[in-house]
Amino acid sequence: MLHAAASTYGQDLSSMPLSASSIHRSRSQHRRKAAAQAKATFVSTGPLVIHFDGKLLPAISGGPEREDRVAILVTGYEMEKILAIPKVAQGTGEQVARAATEALQEWNLRDKVAAMSFDTTAANTGRINGACTLLQQKLEKDLLWLACRHHILEVICGDVFKKIFGPSSGPNVELFRRFQEYWPKIDQASYRPCTDSRLFGDLLSLKCESVAFCLNFLTANTDHLPRDDYKELLELNLIFLGEIPPLGIHFRTPGAFHHARWMSKLLYVLKLNLFQDQFRLTKRESSACMEFGLFVVLIYTKAWMTSPQSCDAPINDLTLIQSLLDYRTASDAVSSSGIRAIGRHLWYLGQELTPLALFSDKVSDEVKRRMAVRLNECEGQSGTEERSITYNGKDISAKTLDQLVGPASHRFFQVLQIDKAFMRCDVNSWSQQISYQQGKKLVKSLTVINDSAERGIALATNFNSSLTKREDEKQYLFQVVEMHRKRLPKPTKSAALGAKTD
After folding, report:
1. Residue 203: pLDDT over 90
2. What is the DSSP string of 143-196?
3. What pTM was computed for the model?
């Protein structure tokens, strides 16, 4: 597919009687020129978010050695761009920060980056040697810390799963392995939705909310389903709750099941519940599947699917905390483990990021008015120049968004260069204010999940041993593949032929 698409950018090499070495040189020149063109024509508007993530891969030179690679990308308004996926000596905070700085310098983007998105590992978030701290020092400016909300929710999922199913000593979930092997014997027409009595009592309102949410997402938000497993999760939610998805009932064959595949926990458990009449479970396994399945369909799925929405991040976190607290009557194990997990990741409830909620359609005008009043009160107070990245107080469940605003909240507007003129007007008229419209457009462009870097790592993994073993050629290859994928999002022969004739 890559070779077929390459002809749309240059000569059709297959029609030329060239030697193997000549063809190799021609393709190498094509990749080099295409990468240079991508850099020369790259245009960004507004502040950018830099993303980074690393992975240990086999050395491109071959042999048993392995090497660290870090994917470095930027996102902005309707834009995502790979800068580089370089090899680093080690995946330390210093090495990652240095690689990110060099990539920004090479693309002349140092001045345009205003925020960074990252997984909440110690190598990234360490106060002294973390990549985030060191990147700010190298760029000589403060950046907004947009901790990946998907990664945070993966941590919550993992903690709840471990609490319910117990610890595991191996990399795979043995229950899932057994179910995958048994799957060919499953009669897919003989599934049984959840009949837990709680769904018709204390949890009825949550059930109705979940059904409405999943149906709406599947019918009105198809553009926000970048992966098939997201769609499968929403459909399994509905089937579990006794409903029929818009496209009918069908089941996909269970896939990978090791612990790192966090999505597998959701999909496997829902299928285990639906087919437990055919697949033998112990009493403990059956109980655990039911408890985790209810957590997934009633609380977790909505939090996951709405997590990319930057304006809603603070209110979504508060809502999730309250939902977990209210869930205590249904399952203390789920409630307590979920609250402990999110309690370690309150990035969007710190003073600096709470102003995101001023641009949320989920937040009431009254709360926005109180937030604006609080911002005006604390402007110029001591602490305005201090960082307040995460919430570190107590009793977060009792807080409202305006109570999370503080002196450091003004840094949000300084870093993003958002005009606060709209706050001098009545909140009812904010939507008509140019400064508010511009601020909302900018805030909505911020990417609060790190999926971009994960896609970069996936690209590096897929092409790690392909076409070339030279490091500079490998970087050119990444640029060309990204360019082809954007031009040909559907990698089919007909799409490539259509692009060739355009």
Report:
1. yes
2. -EEEE-HHHHHHHHHHHHHHHHH---SSSB-HHHHHHHHHGGG--TT-------
3. 0.88
